[in-house]
């Protein structure tokens, strides 16, 4: 089958543009001489991305067998030094932890981390230290976790009732001998416990409709969690080669996920703010969102 006449011309134009862009980037950003550890020779534009498979940690482990416990790679436009021994991990994570504490600014943190403003993605500094201290002393303190012990106990008991076929939605004939997907039950038990502790109630329920509908369905929320973990760990073209970010199909997925998270959190915050306005001076924090909203109004915090 013959290609259309325009195809060879377009291919030549694209190849020429890529070549010129590479030359201009090298001209404007002269290569600095660093005493880098050994590593595979990078290709133009993509660097060593051709050596990274579907499981990046395994690919890097195999490369470390050849180049040693401290090696250098180039992932697209960015040089990377990989430490894969106990001594290298101690040097990076303990001896010089402040120099390596920041996470790279990736698309996932921009669109699902409120433009790098949450504890996971925020750069090291006064804001990060204050947020981390609040989480340790106010949100996840031993005292506050003990106060929610009854929530965890109730959700575990509810999961066991469902597993034994005695839940409110289970048929009477399903008391024994039925196959269950344990992972789904564990996921919902953890989700319900965390939702009650953090948000004050179960926001993910089956069959919500009307004005009092749930913020999302269990299936949609599970999709959001799975999508979040996948996209946070995936090698995105735009993260590795920024000037080719407009070609990255995963950016659309990240933006879509960010919009769904925003809608969910907006409903949660609206309901909590409404209760604060309704109760006025009698308002008392009942969950972690209430506590965070109180801390947000504290003029003594940065």
UniProtKB/TrEMBL annotation:
GO terms for biological process: secondary metabolite biosynthetic process. The chain crosses the membrane at residues 6-24. The keyword Iron applies. Keywords: Heme, Iron, Membrane, Metal-binding, Oxidoreductase, Transmembrane, Transmembrane helix. InterPro entries: Cyt_P450 (IPR001128), Cyt_P450_E_grp-I (IPR002401), Cyt_P450_sf (IPR036396). Belongs to the cytochrome P450 family. This is Cytochrome P450. It comes from Setaria italica. The lineage of its organism: Eukaryota, Viridiplantae, Streptophyta, Embryophyta, Tracheophyta.
């Amino acid at each position: 089958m013959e290609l259309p006449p325009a195809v060879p011309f377009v291919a030549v134009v694209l190849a020429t543009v890529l070549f010129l862009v590479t030359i201009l980037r090298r001209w404007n950003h002269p290569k600095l001489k660093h005493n880098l550890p050994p590593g595979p020779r990078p290709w133009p534009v993509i660097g060593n991305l051709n050596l990274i498979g579907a499981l990046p940690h395994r690919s890097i482990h195999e490369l470390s067998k050849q180049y040693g416990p401290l090696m250098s790679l180039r992932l697209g436009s960015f040089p990377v030094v990989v430490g894969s021994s106990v001594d290298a991990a101690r040097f990076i994570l303990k001896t010089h932890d402040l120099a390596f504490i920041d996470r790279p600014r990736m698309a996932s943190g921009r669109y699902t981390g409120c433009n790098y403003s949450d504890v996971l993605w925020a750069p090291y500094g006064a804001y990060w230290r204050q947020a981390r201290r609040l989480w340790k002393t106010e949100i996840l303190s031993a005292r506050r976790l003990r106060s929610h012990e009854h929530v965890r106990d109730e959700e575990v008991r509810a999961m066991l009732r469902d597993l034994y076929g005695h839940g409110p939605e289970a048929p009477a004939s399903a008391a024994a001998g039925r196959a269950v997907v344990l992972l789904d039950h564990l996921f919902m038990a953890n989700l319900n416990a965390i939702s009650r502790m953090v948000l004050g109630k179960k926001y993910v329920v089956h069959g919500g409709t009307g004005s009092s509908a749930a913020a999302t369905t269990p299936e949609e929320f599970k999709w959001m969690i799975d999508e979040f973990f996948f996209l946070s760990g995936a090698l995105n073209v735009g993260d590795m080669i920024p000037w080719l970010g407009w070609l990255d199909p995963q950016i659309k997925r990240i933006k879509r996920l960010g919009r769904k998270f925003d809608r969910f959190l907006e409903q949660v915050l609206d309901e909590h703010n409404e209760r604060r306005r309704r109760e006025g001076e009698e308002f008392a924090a009942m969950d972690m969102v209430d506590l965070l909203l109180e801390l947000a109004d504290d003029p003594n915090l940065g």
